[in-house]
User: What shape does this take?
Amino acid sequence: MHTVELLPDPATEERVRAAWRELAARGLPSLAGHRHPTNRPHLTVAVADALPWDARRRLAEALAVLPLPLRLADPVRFTGRTRVLAWRVVPGPGLLDLHRVVWDALRPGDGAAGHPLLAPGRWTPHITLGRTRSRAASWPDDLLPPALSRPWDGAFTGARTYDSVTRTTEPLG
Assistant: This one.
């Protein structure tokens, strides 16, 4: 599987990494402990089984709109087999347009299904802060870093793809 991810500006990346470190310091699940070299703050826009050359060309054209404004709002939690704490990204019109174009670029007329939670209209833009499969672990509101409750404005300035088979990334755009 290949992801299409947007990358934040350096100040926003450091803000997210600081939240990771603070969560870890409070004994909460955090991506601070994920040491793989590809681990960095990002917004997943789409996934695909493969990224053939024509799809990469369409993605490069779509990503020419970068930089785009980025606004981090409040924390959001996702439940399921893996529980996730994330920083919600407020989707402005430019981000929603880019999301639709990327979605369409990866499914040109063939009706191929992507991940349903990433589909336009269902997508919840977010930057992951922590994840766990433990049912006992949680992120109580009173233990969350105060920075998570304060809005943050930055920009998405780059893009990459992550290959889950090779565990490598490549720049996009």
